[in-house]
Amino acid sequence: MTTTLGEFSVLPVSIPPLPSFKHAAVHYLYVRRNAPKVPTALDSRSLFLTNVPVDSTDLHLRGLFASLVGAGRFESVSFADERAAAAAAAAREPSADSLLPASAARLLRMSRKRKHTADEEERIEEELRSRLPDTWTRRVRKSGGTAVVVLADEKSVEQVLKAIAKTHKSKKYPTWGEGVEKKVPGLGSAWIKAHNRMCYPDKDMLQASVDAFSAVFARREAEAQELAKRLRNEPDEDGFVTVTRGGGRTAPASRNEAEEARKKMIQKAEKKKEELQNFYRFQLRERKKEQQQELVKQFEEDRRKIQELKERRGRFRPEA
């Protein structure tokens, strides 16, 4: 069996028998030094893994690396599917600042800076209570997925790669999931039954989640209206106050009006920037012209002085 595949080291892992498949098997993990396209400060002490098992958890990988180089070397792991899900969720949820004009966004940032830590923690807890509970006790990953494991230091990376090479010589492969069976929820039929049960949460829990969501929604609406009022009383850089439909400066602005005002302010800023750039170009052209004129003037002055020196030499008559 090959020990390397390109730049990857092949790590054989023993899969113990399961109730659904009563035969031992060997799974192959492919490990190399982490070298992402965008370098980070953790690359020197991290490893890139591919073909991770579908039932992988941080505890599984922690136990795997502990069996290779001992406890205390493993620091953290990030799975590719979790990073992709987090990025997709962030892309679907627009930020509040992107939906407000520049002045309102600035006021929102200022108000956030003035918040106390306790208030911010309370808001986070309230938003967490507003979410419905997850219906899965454990997530199953895509086949052939990848992960990035961060170790304690660069020396640990070297030790892991050396330990992988030794497993091929000794033929003693680390056992997958050894020691973590009671620490993570099981899979199989019990996993499916737990999912079916959690799809119908307790009525009190569901009511508490709905109440918390309503409170968060009402608070955000009140904050948006307050920001809209402050926006109408807050002049922009040119000294103008935003005027919106409603007949008065205190009428709450709609999201469409806020977005339209934001676009106009961006266009105004881009136009002002272009005018400044053109003005700077004009200044540079004028400065070059002045420098050229100064050089020509200096040249004419030097030529006049040389001509005077020549004339003085012509009039000089030494005594016999």
UniProtKB/TrEMBL annotation:
CDD domains: dRRM_Rrp7p, RRP7_Rrp7p. Residues 237-261 are annotated as: Disordered. GO terms for biological process: ribosomal small subunit assembly; rRNA processing. Coiled coil: none annotated. GO terms for cellular component: CURI complex; UTP-C complex. Residues 199-319 form the Ribosomal RNA-processing protein 7 C-terminal domain. InterPro entries: RRM_Rrp7 (IPR040447), RRP7 (IPR040446), RRP7_C (IPR024326). It holds the Pfam family RRP7. Residues 8-189 form the Rrp7 RRM-like N-terminal domain. Belongs to the RRP7 family. This is Ribosomal RNA-processing protein 7-domain-containing protein. The lineage of its organism: Eukaryota, Fungi, Dikarya, Ascomycota, Pezizomycotina.
